[in-house]
Amino acid sequence: HESACGGLVMRVDSDVAFGEALTKLAKGRVAELKFTNECKPFVDIFARCFERSVTLKIVDLSNHGIDDVGLQKFARALKGNMSVVQLSVRSSDIGDNGAKELAHALKENTSLRKLDLGDNNVGPDGAQVLADALTVNASLEGLVLSRNPIRDRGSMFLALALKQNTSLRELRLVSNKVDVAATKQFAEALQSNMQLQLLDLTACLSFGRGCDILAEALKMNNGLLTLHLRCNGIKCDGAGKLAEALSGEPWSHLAVLDLAVNDIRDVGCERLAQALRTNKSLKTIELGNNDGITDAGFEMLTKALVVNESLTRIGLDNVSCSGAEKLAAALMRNTSLRILNLSNHRIRLNGVKKLAEVLKVNASLEKLSLGCYVLGRSGGFGDDGAMELAAALKENTSLRKLNLQGNDIGPAGARMLVDALKVNTSLEELVLNKNPIGAWFAALYLKDDLRVLV
User: Fold this and answer.
1) Is the pLDDT of residue 450 over 70?
2) Does residue 436 contact residue 406 with C-beta atoms inside 8 Å?
3) 258 near 224, Cβ under 8 Å?
């Protein structure tokens, strides 16, 4: 089919398809190429065509076992190719030798914008040569090294490279060990590097160590827009330091802060809520799956939402009925929030009643998730809650997506929701997965409405 950047998108799943792809590639008609079957047998031929192509923009070799030997051929071809802007070899068998070949290519190539090496076997030595290439390359904007064993030493080399590199906009290092020494280097880099816009350190900091160092660096940085720190064991002290960066002078320009799956508790939640009262840059904050946030913490956040006019997305977890009622009261006055994620809630019927009342008058909320994904969590609101939401949908005109997965909604509740869709023309997606509505009901009543996912 046609690519958004012009030319054809081809998925190679057989010898015949590969032959057809080569023919079209030679004629300059292919812009994006994705292998959907084992591509090792075609590596030599494709690498030669790849080097000469002037139309190919995106190459996806992920999940097909390309090893260092196979990647070597592509890396050498990349030196001479000036059309490809995105190369992905995610979930392959790339190690340090393959990384070295790519690093050599990056020193000469000027077209590649994104390189995805996630879920491979690149170690500290491979990270070192890639970091060295970043000090020379002035065109690469995105580098993914998530879930590679680069360890502390590899992280240190990448942090040092950021002090010299001026092109990189995104760096993703999910599930790589970053010790305090490496974190200090990242912090120092952020004080001078204003080009990096996204840093993903998910599951990198052991017990949240180094979070305070990064927070101090944010006070000096006006370029970073997105910071992912989920799954790092960050406690209330670390959350407090981040809150200082968000509220103090000079202002942080951070727009997205992901602190899900940490340990910030009510104290950390209160500090962040105080920051939200004055911060004008933050658009998204994720706080789901944080231990120790009770109704007291949620109440502080809801009070902040009343005065905050910039936040457009918030993710929370384990919200109770009382928390939902306070949140509903805040949403009666808040006009900026667009996405509200209350997954794995405990709001029950009274809580969903309050949220349904909000939906009748709130004209800004576009996505609401009330999905339950944890087995045994007894927060579902059943058919009675579905009836309240159905009545609200008949009046609401802003909501685009409503996720009600796993809320014990049966055929009666589903029927009321489906009837509401006959009136509501703005909702684009209604998720009813993992509810006991019955296959017969889905087949009979939901087959004709493509908006309902079951």
Assistant:
1) no
2) no
3) no
Tokens coding 416: 């009321």
The phi, psi pair for 153, rounded to 5°, reads -65, -40
Strand, helix or coil for residue 363: coil
pLDDT of residue 56: 82
Our measurement of the distance from residue 363's CA atom to the centroid of its chain's CA atoms, rounded to an integer in Å, reads: 26
In one-letter notation, the amino acid at residue 352 is: V
pLDDT tens, position by position, 2-27: 445 454 454 555 555 555 655 666 55
Q: Where would I find the H helices in 12-95?
A: 15-26, 43-52, 68-80
Using alpha carbons, select from 185, 119, 109 the residue that is nearest to residue 141: 109
E strands along 283-432, which residues?
284-286, 313-315, 339-341, 367-369, 401-403, 429-431
pLDDT for position 31: 62
Render pLDDT for 125-139 as a digit per residue (tens, 0 to 9): 999 999 999 999 999
Q: Are 198 and 225 in contact (CB under 8 A)?
A: yes
In order of 5, 104, 112, 344, the CA distances from 108 in angstroms are: 24, 7, 10, 49
Degrees, nearest 5: CA angle 419-314-391: 20
pLDDT tens string 108-119: 999 999 999 999
What is the per-residue pLDDT across 66-89, written as a single tens digit (0 to 9) for each? 889 888 888 988 888 888 999 999
Please give the model's pTM, rounded to 2 decimal places. 0.91
CB distance 276 to 304 below 8 Å: yes
| CA 143 to each of CA 34, 88, 139: distance values in angstroms, whole numbers, following the listed order | 19, 10, 11
